[in-house]
Amino acid sequence: MKTFALLLCAVLVGAASATAAPVPERTSSLRDQQSVNLTVYNDSNALVHDRRRIMLRAGRNSVAWRDVSAKMDPTSAILASLDPNGGVSVIEQNFDYDVLNQDSLLRKYVGSEVIVVHPARFAGERPRREWAKILNVDGGIVLQYRNRIETQLDGYIEFPRVPPSLRDRPTLGIDLQSARGGPQTLDLAYLTRGLSWSANYVATISADRSHMNLLGFVTLTNESGTSYSNARLQLVAGNVHNVPPSYALKTIARVTTAQADVYRVGARQEDLFEYHLYTMPYRTTILDKQTKQLALLSANDVPIRETLELRGSSYYYRGAQPDLGARLPVGVYVGFENKGGRLGIPLPAGTMRVYENDSHGLSQFLGSSTIPHTPRNDTVRLYLGDAFDVVARKKQTDFKFRSTCSASSSYEIALVNGKSAPQRVIVVEPIPGEWTISDATLPYVKSSASTATWNVPLPANGTTTLRYTAHVRWCRR
User: Fold this and answer.
1) Tens of pLDDT, residues 94-124
2) How much is the pLDDT for 162?
3) Domain boundaries defined on the chain
4) Architecture of domain 306-337+384-473 in CATH?
5) What's the whole-model pTM score?
6) Smallest Cα–Cα separation from 350: which of 195, 240, 202?
7) Which letter does DSSP use for residue 127 in this model?
């Protein structure tokens, strides 16, 4: 029995020693990186696949995976071995995003002693070294010496060592178990904020305004706190729901923006669940705190249709109104179908800027408009501004209540064309409730349950006047 007790004690002591023995940390940097894949979403989220070749030993390993995103969600991190029979399982992960700098180092040493080096006061005198405890660093440093407390530093501080929780760059500490020793290819996948993209389009319309050439670009911004070298880039268009992490990540540095080159190579598009995935055909390097543009699509000779539109309001059908406008603007719209030729792929939401070449061959800006996510074969409508030479005058010529919730009102719309060529203006009137039109001088269509639309021809340098009466009921008796 005594022998068994001694053996059991020896086993327990040995086990405790083995548990207490620290596992040497292996540092993995970008030198180990085999490839990196970025999938960037519309909401400033991205999925990173960082693949590295790392030397492991059989049993427990501690890996400092450096150069991860400073805004990563560590709860989303997944580590997997890509080697057959790798046998890697994660025991613990620690995300060290408190990066080493003067402020973080001082804060880590609050309550601890450091060496303060005071400068020499006289020529030939050596600097004086003195131990002091850092009491506080909020609003200025507070130092406790053996015989006094001071709130100013007249020299500099020497720190005994760097605290283990401080890293010189964002690092994911991974404790893992490996079934075998030797080099293995590991894939670290995680979600991060700080990477965003948007679509931008440049359209140049022809002189006869019958077609346009369209270029689409992706504007990608990296504010994640790390760079991605020679990355395979994929973009997801669509509203993807993502639950944010339950804690706040520290912002590592102030963000600035740099411009990069523009490449004109199209992306490959494919369906992904209820979204659309665009894969760039080449790898690209995305530096931290950089904005760059990459080509998304190129399509020439896209048929377009220019329209002039006068849009009304529903409020003036319920009461008598003064003059509704002596110089109402007529909007200029350009529309096209997302189909045919190099189009016919889902267009991500973004800003489209429209240009036209002048008589000297110089492109001139005509206006810009935002477009929503646009599926195949759908129509894109761009509002570019207001016409200069085509204006409208509108007035209410009569109004009568028929009951407490119905009325009749008459209108006169004079459309003036200052151009030397005939024009057409689409007049769109939103009318509330139940309605009918009578005494219209030009034919109209009921384009929706609450909209009457006229297509009004205008002679060159002339005026066309539209008159009509609307009978409206906005409630039931």
Assistant:
1) 887 666 778 878 888 898 999 999 988 888 7
2) 79
3) 23-97+167-192, 102-158, 202-299, 306-337+384-473
4) Sandwich (2.60)
5) 0.71
6) 202
7) P
